[in-house]
Fold each of these.
Amino acid sequence: MEIQLWREILDPYRQAVDELVVKFNHIKYEYQMEGLYSPIEQVNGRLKRISSILEKAQKKGIPLDEIDGKIDDIAGIRIICQFVEDIKTVVEIIKKRSDITIVEEKDYISHAKKSGYRSYHLIVNYVVQTLEGPKELGVEIQIRTLAMNFWATIEHHLQYKYNENMPDEIRQRLLSAAKAVGALDNEMASVRNEIMDAQISNRQKNTVIISILNEIENLYRSANKREVEKIQDEFFKIYKLDDMDMLLKFEKQLDILAENYRAQSITDD
Ligand code: 0O2
């Protein structure tokens, strides 16, 4: 097939990948802005390489002119979660979206593949707007934990290295490693609440600190410089104590002070 033809086929898939990466990252951003724990840790997208498309088409007996529509992972999105439980949440989020239609679900978490591979796959339909009008495409969304992703990445490299002739010994070791990854995910699930609480309180602390620093910066414009320097010193002392209650109290006092300055500057005008 000519390169121009490949471009015509692949460009809409590229667009789907770009758009979906932005959309899933935005979900993560929304959680963070609400000060909530995000079930999405990381989002990656990729367009399948032409050589891999050809290989798959050959393996599955798909004629070249039917590639578009019959290979469902030309556009691939990978969503990485911290914990196994988050995967369910991400699937629910996707199910509720009006711009994504789930066509097929493959649960390789409850039923790991023979290789030891674990991941949750969704084959979805997604519409992109092109110059020729809307085009509905299939996209594969892989959802897995950081630990599952670590295993799959290493195993994928080894598959590539041995090109379907992986020695039995390596295969067995990978299976043991997959079991260890499963045990790690279970262990992490038991400390999930503690980790989540720590992450949320860290995020809340950062939000308060940013708000205080912004307020101090604003005060430099309206208040007496010496006074602001004193406030700044006071803030550094509290910051070093690493006490959330004191930070919150300081933020409140600063708000009142800044409000007074704002009121004063309006009266002065
Ligand atoms: P690449 O290089 O990632 O694009 P099926 O039609 O269901 O019988 P299909 O279409 O291969 O078979 O779907 P499946 O089994 O759900 O696999 C889709 C993708 O999941 C693969 O794409 C891999 O990315 C990943 N995957 C599946 N099995 C394994 C595995 O054992 N190890 C690793 N590391 N990844 C796996 P591709 O096209 O195989 O590869």
Amino acid sequence: MADRAVTMEKLVALCKARGIIFPGSEIYGGMGNTWDYGPVGVEIKNNIKRAWWKRFVSESDNSYGVDAAILMNSRVWEASGHTTSFSDPKMDCKKCKTRHRADNLIEAYSKGAVNPDTMSNEEMEKYIEEHHINCPNCGNFDWTNIRTFNLMFETSRGVTDESQNKIYLRPETAQGEFVNFLNVQRTARAKVPFGIAQVGKAFRNEITPGNFIFRTIEFEQMEHQWFCKEGTDEAFYNEYKEKAMSFLVDLGFDKEHLRFHDHDKLAHYARAACDIQYLYPMGWQELNGIHNRTDYDLSRHQEFSGKTLTYVDPMNGERYIPYVIEYSIGADRLMLAVLSEAYDEEKLENGEVRNVMHFHPAIAAYKAAILPLQKNLAPKAKEFLVRLKKLFSVTYDEAGSIGKRYRRQDEIGTPYCITVDFDTLEDGTMTVRDRDTMEQQRLTAEQIIAFLTEKCAF
Ligand code: GAP
């Protein structure tokens, strides 16, 4: 990232200083891998989720949303395979007692040149041995063998010990879409091909090195399952690859910072799988996944639940279990990519550096900031603020010089600053300043509303 000013340290510091993201449980010394979104951050994240939903549900011809329970019948996780095989290969350093993922050690050591996804546990152990990969925490070379730990968080339900039942915090939202396949199909009278989407929390007991909100133990997923007939799956898989990429480009991502990464090693049931990787401050990493999962998920749920999950084609009465093209993206991981992409340090002609976040206006926390030039113009400015708040997320600032107020808004990525001055009292016009070009124009209240409506659409 030689040409980019962004580093993870700068992002973390900016996020904390500007109310975007705080360390979780901070006053108690924090809790590893947890983060809290602040007033600005929650607006940005909600806008990301809204933009995704609009694109993949509202604007889709045949996609429907659900909001399924986080706690599901434990049989769901048996059917999905999570209870038996949702695990990471972990090794403990016998010297400093820290735990590490063997695949991460290999990836970091080889700088991404070796893909541990294609290796068995034995092959990973051999690679670590042969290349003498030391513990990143204490620098020693004294590893246990690889052991696998299930990533699901367990809890229990029931009021007495006898009635306790082990249940899990869902590790992905996808199963809520699969188990509701027939409910949605029937109630929406949906014809295959159609989609079911969900946005919600997922939980994984990850052991990871930092990287801010990239990999956390609690995160949000935005998942979309496209149910289609076998034979049409390949074309839909390619279509979803393109749709997933276009969504990112339309959000303002530089194409040079995105790439497809096809998986070499496929799950036994999968026909194809790829990620879109983003060039994060720490390097190329998975941003989202697109998978052709065949009829595996519905077949497994049919087997484990004993309920028939076949679709009946209304045209010819043909019965079949649809194939699934899954598109899955983490809202927090996308947030980190959006923050990294937006971050800029701009050298001004006077030698000063301007910190600015170039968010797409649809994603910015506030579409505009209303700034009275002087405090005695506050009543006029607040009059417009009340009107604008009914239409957009906007903020207000009357503290400090106008230049300082512009800079504060630049740092949180507010695309437009609207200054109310003495001319406003005369002719009703206000100065609208563009965050990126810093150019200004005078517009009336009605013109500003039309202007923001056009610029902030996604
Ligand atoms: N249903 C498929 C599924 O869950 P995944 O590759 O494990 O597939 C999908 O997760 C996406 O969820 C990832 O591409 C990533 O964006 C996000 N994600 C996964 N684990 C995460 C974690 N621990 N923290 C933040 N985001 C995560």
